[in-house]
Write a structure and sequence with these properties.
about 240 residues; 3-stranded antiparallel beta sheet; 9 helices; globular; binds carba-nicotinamide-adenine-dinucleotide
Length: about 240
């Protein structure tokens, strides 16, 4: 199929659907200037020999054992506060506004779907925009994290932790159940910008049994052979406003 035919196929699937759910990953924000993890330019391919792997730094135990080092890494590699939603974010917001798209389930922690105007966003891995004192549960915005270069602390003295699901931590059961329910009920699931390697988010695609399934991703995923339409192209060229 040519690029034009592929796009036409996707448009037909969207036109025929009334209950679309979209699952997004880090690739969705690459056109906004936020690196993903597993692309050639991604964070996992950045460290030189001897560097501590990002999965280790971004883990629950590392946070508590090396809080200052965690924050040095987190501030420089995970916070892109100047990034703006790209065209694909706006396309999803429009699809929701016109009633077709019922939910976005995202692995992203950057808040860009909401910034583009999307209302129903399940943030499976949390958000850098929310932060909580581990002692008294007072919540803070991201400003509190960047205002000092040291460990951010609450007025009670407790350490402030980002509301981001770190490695070794569980996802919110409520969010996971809601995501499964949306995917079970949908008539079209579009999976975009994710390598589908991080579980349980990656295996959510399996709950879509009634709906059509589309993957839009530059790299390969373990589910490429199981979908109705596979688009291996830049998502920002595929998810354009003329789809709505
Ligand atoms: P990943 O494993 O890095 O995969 C990203 C995928 O996106 C890759 O397969 C790329 O080929 C693909 N991709 C990159 N750019 C494009 C593009 N322009 N068009 C189409 N496809 C593209 O990331 P996953 O989301 O699968 O892994 C889950 C991790 C990444 C979650 O825990 C996230 O919290 C974490 N993460 C989030 C962000 C963010 O919030 N923006 C950034 C970096 C990592």
């Amino acid at each position: 199929m040519s690029d034009k035919q592929v796009k036409k196929h996707l448009k037909t699937l969207i036109d025929e659907a009334n209950n679309i759910v979209v699952l997004t990953g880090a690739g969705f924000s690459v056109p906004s200037g936020i690196p993903d993890f597993r692309s050639a330019q991604g964070l996992f391919n950045e460290g030189g020999e001897g560097a501590i792997p990002p999965e280790e730094i971004l883990s629950h135990s590392y946070f508590f054992q090396h809080t200052k080092l965690f924050y040095d890494f987190y501030r420089s590699k995970m916070l892109y506060l100047e990034a703006k939603p790209n065209g694909a974010h706006h396309t999803l917001a429009k699809l929701e506004a016109c009633g077709k798209l019922k939910a976005i389930i995202t692995q992203n922690i950057d808040g860009l779907h909401q910034e583009a105007g999307s209302q129903n966003v399940i943030e499976l891995h949390g958000s850098v925009k929310r932060n909580t004192c581990i002692k008294c549960n007072t919540t803070y915005g991201v400003k509190k994290i960047i205002e000092k270069v040291d460990i951010p602390r609450c007025s009670c003295g407790g350490i402030i932790k980002p509301d981001v699901v770190l490695y070794e931590e569980n996802l919110s059961l409520g969010d996971l159940e809601a995501a499964i329910e949306y995917i079970r009920e949908c008539d079209l699931l579009i999976v975009v910008g994710t390598s589908l390697q991080v579980h349980p988010a990656a295996s959510l695609i399996r709950y879509c049994r009634r709906g059509k399934r589309v993957i839009i991703n530059l790299g390969e995923t373990p589910y490429d052979k199981e979908v109705d339409l596979l688009i291996q192209a830049p998502l920002e060229e595929v998810l354009t406003l003329d789809l709505c």
